[in-house]
Amino acid sequence: MQSLARNGYTAEQVKAALHSDTVMLTFRYDLLDKVNAFKKRLDNVLAGSVAYNALADIKRTARFLVEDDGTIDFLSDRIKPWVRVLMLDGGWVEFPQGVFLLTTPPRKVDSAGVITRDVEAYDLLQVLADDKVTERYTVIAGTNYIAAVRAVLDGAGLHDQNLNPTTKTLPADRDWDLGTPKLKIINDLLGAIAYRSLWMDENGCAVAQPYVSPSDRAPEYDYRDDDKSVIFPEAEQGLDPFGIPNQWILTVSEPDRPPLRSVYTNTNPNSTTSTVSRGRTITDPLRQVEAADQASLDDQAARLAFEASQVFEEVALETGIMPFHSDSDVFTLRFSALGINAKYSETEWSMDLKAGARMKHYIRRVVDV
Questions:
Q1: pLDDT per residue over 295-341, tens digit each?
Q2: Are residues 145 and 186 in the same domain?
Q3: Residue stretches of the chain with pLDDT short of 50
Q4: What confidence score (pLDDT) does residue 235 get?
Q5: Which of 102, 163, 189, 288 has a CA 20 to 30 Å removed from the CA of 356?
Q6: Closest by alpha carbon to 24, among 88, 105, 107?
Q7: Could you give the count of Cα atoms lying within 13 Å of 38 in the half-sphere of its Cβ?
Q8: Residue 3 located in a structural domain
Q9: Listed residue (290, 240, 294, 293) closest to 264, CA to CA
Q10: By the 8 A CB rule, do 320 and 18 touch?
C-alpha cells in the first residue's frame, strides 16, 4: 500500500480528504521514454483505467484511449498515470498508478475526423516476460539468490530495484532451457527462498520481498460502513471450503544433492478443514519444487497450505477511488449488511480514471482453516 502521507500532508489529512462528501479527484498522464525518464505531460489521453492482479504473472495492466496526434512513440514510450486528490485546504496530493508499456492498436477516425487508438498497456514485468534467454542459462552453486535475481534484472535493462537481501545461496547449479522467459527464471529463484513473485511498484521499480502470511501482517487501512464510509452498498461474499486439502507434500529432487521432502498436515482441531475436524485426509497433488534447503522447503509447504486454505472466504466490493492501493494490501473491513468484521488481503483491484468512478476490490479473508 502506498503511503498516504505526502506533499507535506499527514496520512490522516489525506484520509479525511478521500472520505469527504465533497472529495474531488483529477487525473494526469506523464509520457516517459524507454528508460522511464520524463518527456512531457500528455493532454491527448481521453480516458484511462488501471487494474492490478497480485496472482497474475503480469500484475498491473491499463487501458488508455488516446488521440493519435503523433506525440507518442508506441514502440518505446511509456505512460505513467496519476490520481490527484484535492485537499481540504485547497492543496493537492498525487498518487502514481504504474509505468506502462504500450501496444500499438489500429487507428480509428470518427465522424469529426478525430483519430484515436484504444491502447492496452502492461507494467514492466512484460519486459521480463518478452525477454528470453538465447542459450541455456545457468546459475552456479554458491551464488547468492538475490544477486542472481539482480543479474537477470540488470541484463534486461531494469536497474530500478528494491530487492530484500538474503544470505541464502544456491546449493547446486540450476539450469534453464534456451527460450526461457527471464521472468520465470527470477520467480523460480525467488520461490526457492520463499519470496513472493516479483512485482513492479507504482513508479516502475522491481520489488522482491520475503513472503509473509497476511495473518502475520498488520492491517494497513480500515474500511467501515459508518458515516464516513466510501463503501457502496452492493457486495458479494463467497464461502466454499469443500475442496480445500488438509495435507501437502513437496519434494526436491536434483542430481547433485540429497533429496528433500516436506509434509505439512493440518491437524488443528479448531480448523474446520483439518484432518481432525473432517475425519479424513485430503492430500494435495504431489509437487516437485526448487528450494535452497530444508527450511525453505518447509516454508514453501506452510505457505502453500495457507494460500490453498485462504480461499475459504472471498468478498467482492466497490468503493470510491482510493488511489493508494498497491500489491497484496492487507486491511480490515467492517460491513454490517453481511456481518463482516475481519482482516482481509487484496488479490485484485481495478478502477476507471475518471471522477465519480467506482473502484472494485477482490479480497480474501485471512483465516486459518
A1: 999 999 988 887 776 556 889 999 999 999 999 999 999 999 999 99
A2: yes
A3: none
A4: 94
A5: 102
A6: 88
A7: 7
A8: no
A9: 294
A10: yes
Q: What CA dihedral angle connects 61, 48, 21 and 228, to 10 degrees? A: -10
For 32, residues 6+ apart whose C-beta sits below 8 A from its C-beta are 38, 39, 77, 78, 79, 80, 99
Query: What CATH number should be reported for the domain holding residue 25?
Result: 2.40.10
259-297 confidence digits (pLDDT tens): 999 999 999 898 888 899 999 999 999 888 989 899 999
Residues 222 and 355 in one domain: yes
Which set of grid coordinates corresponds to residue 133?
Answer: 534467454
Read off the C-alpha cell for 216: 502475520
Q: Which of 206, 164, 141, 214 is nearest to 368 (CA)?
A: 214
| CA proximity to 308, closest of 213, 219, 216 | 213
Amino acid identity of 145? Answer: Y
pLDDT digits (tens, 9 = 90+) for 158-171: 999 999 999 999 99
Q: Name the phi and psi angles at 231, rounded to 5.
A: -90, 135
104 and 194 in one domain? no
Contact between 140 and 169 (Cβ < 8 Å): no
DSSP 181: B
Residue-range definition of the domain harbouring residue 26: 11-122
Last residue of a domain, one of 176, 208, 240: 208
What is the distance between the alpha carbons of residues 352 and 330, in angstroms, rounded to a whole number?
A: 22
Residues 101 and 132 in one domain: no
Residue showing cell 534467454: 133
pTM over 0.90, yes/no: no
Round to whole Å and give the CA distance between 180 and 138.
Answer: 12
Question: In the structure grid, which three cell numbers stand for residue 224, read together?
Answer: 467501515
Contacts of 7 (CB under 8 A, 6+ apart): 91, 92, 93, 94
Phi, psi (degrees; rounded to nearest 5) at 102:
-115, 140
Same structural domain for residues 347 and 260? yes
Helices (H), the chain: 11-18, 125-130, 145-155, 182-192, 275-278, 294-309
